[in-house]
Design brief:
Elements: E1 3-5, E2 8-10, E3 16-20, E4 23-27, E5 33-36, H1 43-52, E6 56-60, H2 66-83, E7 86-91, E8 94-98, E9 102-104
Parallel strand pairs: 5-6
Antiparallel strand pairs: 1-4, 2-9, 3-4, 6-8, 7-8
């Protein structure tokens, strides 16, 4: 594991915190954050697989027609709810899904 700036926090693994004047580094497990913009509603099924695999997902629905945006959001929200992942709306068309043991730090 390599040190990274703390923007995600995982309760799964042990964390070693080192203090440095003005900077805190955490040795944490890696989180794969996938960025996706679906071109069609069919793409959403594979994105659900990413959430179920414990990966983070940032999805932008700009390219979908309005009825498909709602279906895509409902599908991904259902998967996130079922496995205990978190869902955070970044904007009306951008949503972030993270494994349940990962927290975001709001600044």
């Amino acid at each position: 594991m390599s040190p990274m700036f703390a923007s995600f926090k995982s309760g799964k693994a042990h964390q070693e915190e080192r203090e440095n004047p003005g900077l805190t580094l955490l040795d944490t497990p890696n989180l794969d954050l996938c960025l996706r913009t679906p071109g069609s509603l069919e793409d959403i099924v594979s994105y659900g697989g990413l959430i179920m695999a414990g990966k983070g997902l940032l999805v932008c629905l700009n390219d979908l027609p309005e009825p498909d945006k709602i279906r895509a959001q409902d599908y991904l929200a259902g998967i996130a709810y079922t496995i205990g992942a978190t869902e955070t709306e970044i904007s009306p068309e951008v949503t972030m899904y993270l494994p349940g043991e990962v927290d975001t730090i709001h600044g």
